[in-house]
Sequence to fold (440 residues):
Amino acid sequence: MDEEDYIENTWSYFLLCGEPTLYEGLRFARDLIIANLTLRLIIQCFSLPHNGRHCLSLLIGSFLLYYNVGSAIIWTLGLTAGAYFAITFVTLLTKRWRGFIITFLVILFIVLCEVYVVNPKMWQQIRGIQMIAAMKIISVAIELDRGLFKDILNPVEFGGYLLCPANSILGPWIQFHTYSSYLDVKFLSRRWIKLIIINLVQSMVFLILSNCFIPWYIDDDTTLWLMSYRDAQAFRMSHYFVSSMSIVSMLSAGFGLTNDCHLDIEVTKPLFIELPRSLVQVVIFWNIPMHQWLKNYIFKTCQPYGQFIAIFTTYAISSLLHGFNFQLSAVLLSIGSFSYVEYNFRYKVASALEVCCLANPCGKQCEHRYKKNSFIAVLVNTIFSVITIMHLAYLGVMFEASFTVQESGYSYYHTISKWENLNFFSHGFVAFMYLGYLMM
Fold:
């Protein structure tokens, strides 16, 4: 094939792939933007009472959910109503264990729905929505225990918070007090519109990269590891698309902005994931609001029982919130164990070599002999970065599958076969690293 034919075929491919991808992405964005602009403009133009604003959020959010998932909304409404009655009933019995009891009941509800009640296709459609709602419910229950509310929320406040159109579909999670304060803010600004457009364009770029560009630039005739990296990167780009779109949704409702209309919320940091320093930082920057939620409500609650118990419980809760799915649980628990071993191993290496190579970068007052810009520090950190990139390819490869598999969920066999093709490299490498850590 000569150069002109190659260029023509490549351009035709991007047109055939890019146009429908962009069309579907913008159509999805349109619904989110219209619903949230409606919420913001009504708040902006009319002086509504406190409960009136929450009721408006509840109504518009319910309509948006029904428009997107249809009759499956009954499971989200059921979780919302059931959780409110559970919190009210438990509060009558005790004001000490509400966080633990509600967390247990919410996770039990999600697991039972996925395993026994809801059909797999419908569950895949609402899984993310249920997870966001569950995080909100658990945060309210734990904050009640911590005395951050004067009294239990009324049904309109609770429903408006859980079903708010700004983040009920894509997230990100925000505290109730943050949500309530955003409803009180009134503003109109050209910068606001500019921020919405910038993040919308960014989300569409990530979508086209995921669907069209990445599957094209590495073909199937290359090595197994390069194909694994390609598939994992395509999955990561789709995550960046969802994260950027969640910011578009928040901004359209006037959420996530400072008083002078600057962006005050960040969901992910693609550069820190594509060029990672460590798996620890990948975990932090993959979904920043969820990381904060897990840290504040799960890790800190379990910390008195020991560091390992706190870390294990945090990743266990995270995997259960994502759904009772072997693939997701295997990935999340693997990341948890990998990052735990990496963190401790790098601490030992940094101490032994006196080099700045901790999983998280040192602050301004680095006490290591070899600072971050020294040759040995750059070399060691580069080696760890390459290892992390290989871990990301290994962990992310299984998310590539046919549409049918994605629609109904991933099986045990699918997960194991993907890792078996890579000779269980990362699990073996981390086991070797852990032995090295014990011997140092």
Residues 401-408 have pLDDT under 50 and may be disordered. Residues 3-45 form the longest helix (43 residues).
